[in-house]
Amino acid sequence: MFKKVAPYIGEYKKYTVWAAIMMVIGIAANVLPYFFLYEIIAPLTRGEGVSVSFICIRVALVAVCEFIYSFSYVQGLTFSHISAYNTLKNIRISLQGKLEKQPLGNIKELGTGRIKKVFTDDIDMIELLLAHAIPEGIANTFIPAVIIIIMFIVNWRLGLLSLVPLVIGLFAMGMMMKSGLEKMNDYYESAARMNNTIIEYVNGMEVVKVFNKDGESYKRFGDVVRGYRDFTLAWYKVCWPWMAIYASVIPCLVLLMLPFGSMMVLGGTVTLDKLVLVFCMSFSVGPCVLKALNFAGKFPQLDYKITELENLMEHAPLKEVTDGFKGNNYDVEFNDVHFGYKDAEVLHGVSLSLKQGTTTALVGESGSGKSTLAKLLVHYYDIDSGNIKIGGQDITDMSLEALNNQVAFVSQEQFLFNTSLYENILIGKPDATREEVLEAARRAQCDEFLERFPEGINTQAGDSGKQLSGGERQRISLARAILKNAPIIVLDEATAFMDPENEEKMNAALDEIIKDKTVLVIAHRLSTIKNADKICVMKDGVCIASDKHDKLTETCPEYKKLWDASVSASTWRIKEA
Ligand SMILES: Nc1ncnc2c1ncn2[C@@H]1O[C@H](COP(=O)(O)OP(=O)(O)OP(=O)(O)O)[C@@H](O)[C@H]1O
Ligand SMILES: [Mg+2]
């Protein structure tokens, strides 16, 4: 576990070392008063008198010790927290770096809930390890060890007697960890289940309410919450008896020393003086050991969290190089592309070429693999075999940044940042002038709804763009792509949410911007892609035909079927109106 965290501490390791040193000084100062206590009691046991000044000096020394303890402890905590929070920062940044190299598709599959939990809660657990468990653990183990050695030096028999409760306590602690460990996994799994269900419940509340499934949904919610309670109690139940044993035995090192030590004093094998000294020292050991053991009890949990963190990153990183774009032109070629999200293959050898300056449309039934093919062009995932080239250069032979500069992708799922709509469009070309942004918004037919907002283009998009309708979100994304003015444009159902009038305007605008560009467009409404230079018909992950509209209606029955369905759907729409 320490090995796993060590690479991230880096230059801050010295702070952890200093923290441990300060803690050792602090704890030493904290146990020293027990010695002064002995100094005051010892003469009394010998029947000697003690002067007031002697007592006053000892009391003053106790006060000094307590001051040193407080100062060192606070200073130690300061050092340990500097080290801990810088390490947390390093872990988060490194995790972000690893996350960035992961296929984008995989990140989306992980879900925001799990990623958020790892980035915040799980990593925060490491604070406990670095800021407390290591320095305090070292100090609270080192000082008792020294005291026990001194006890043995004073009288090995008394030392041995004081060890017995410690051994019993450690055994109980070991048993608690062993039996607790088996339940711990169940506990964490139930915690993760509860986490996911709560997120799903909140996200899906809209569906739940509309479909009036409150009863069932509440039941599932209630089940996981009750499950969490049961697993937690089950975990505690096996831990508590052992915890009770070690928590009561360990602070009581005098348990055997008291009767047997007294007998030894009466028998003359030990002086009362020595018994009192070992007695006083033993009082300081228990609380320290208990504290150290409490930290030790946390280690299995920490191990679990760190492993979880590593598992999140276990996916192979995306194949990527730092090379720039070196293609000869902006032709795109898919050559025998095979791809599956997990085990099942979704695309079974798709070959397709898109010529620069032409528009290619992908059509096909839902689930035939159109969006998947589009996502592969922007390298959301690595493909299983085959290749995808731009201007002759494989997309895995260029950096993601270089690829992104060549391709503007308007996906089926729109994402807007919670900033102003203006800034959301500006992402397409960060150095664009205000005029350019407004022009892009106008071309994407955004004006019509922007005028309705009191703050126009400066309106905030809301969480994930929730303030906007689906069609409005899509048009903002389109404006972003228009502004980017990349040589290759991929539009996945970019006009799906639009009404016919806006769609017409948009298509006119698109016609203007797609000149000389390589365009891949996916559309359910076939009327919008009727004039495409090439139409590729997808079926079950295979491109079964590709030609112009007129040819396909004659030669490809599947296309004819899609076309007829599309025509009847639009007629139906007109009749409805
Ligand atoms: N993230 C994913 N993980 C696993 N399977 C997926 C994932 N995304 C899509 N699929 C599967 O891959 C297949 C192709 O999906 P894709 O989204 O490419 O279809 P599509 O042709 O774009 O459909 P639509 O017209 O409905 O948008 C489907 O069977 C779908 O269930
Ligand atoms: Mg799709």
CATH topology of the domain at 332-411 and 488-576: Rossmann fold
What is the top-level CATH class of the domain at 332-411 and 488-576? Answer: Alpha Beta
What's the end-to-end separation, in Å? Answer: 66 Å
Estimate what percentage of residues fall within beta strands: 5-15%
Say which CATH homologous superfamily of the domain at 332-411 and 488-576 is assigned: P-loop containing nucleotide triphosphate hydrolases
Q: What is the CA-based Rg, rounded? A: 36 Å
Widest beta sheet: strand line-up:
6-7-8-3-9-10
Low-confidence stretches: none
Number of helices: 19
Q: What is the mean pLDDT? A: 85
| Anisotropy-based shape | elongated
Structural class per helix/strand content? alpha/beta
- Please name the CATH architecture of the domain at 332-411 and 488-576: 3-Layer(aba) Sandwich
Q: Say how many strands there are.
A: 10
Can you give a write-up of this model?
It is a single chain. The protein is an alpha/beta fold and 577 residues long. Among the domains are: 1-155, ABC transporter transmembrane region fold, CATH 1.20.1560; 332-411 and 488-576, Rossmann fold, CATH 3.40.50. Helix content is 65%, strand content 10%. It contains 19 helices and ten strands. The protein has helices at 2-9, 13-45, 52-101, 104-110, 112-154, 156-203, 205-210, 214-249, 254-267, 272-312, 370-377, 400-406, 421-426, 434-443, 447-450, 470-484, 500-513, 549-555, 557-576, and strands at 332-340, 345-354, 359-364, 385-390, 393-394, 407-410, 488-492, 518-522, 534-539, 542-547. The strands form two sheets. A six-stranded mixed sheet has the order 6-7-8-3-9-10, with helices on both faces. The protein has a four-stranded antiparallel sheet with strand order 2-1-4-5, with helices on one face. Strand 9 and strand 10 (542-547) form a beta hairpin. The chain is elongated. The two termini are 66 Å apart. The structure holds adenosine-5'-triphosphate and magnesium ion. Residues 370-371, 412, 492 line the site of magnesium ion (MG). Residues 370-371, 412, 492 line the site of magnesium ion.
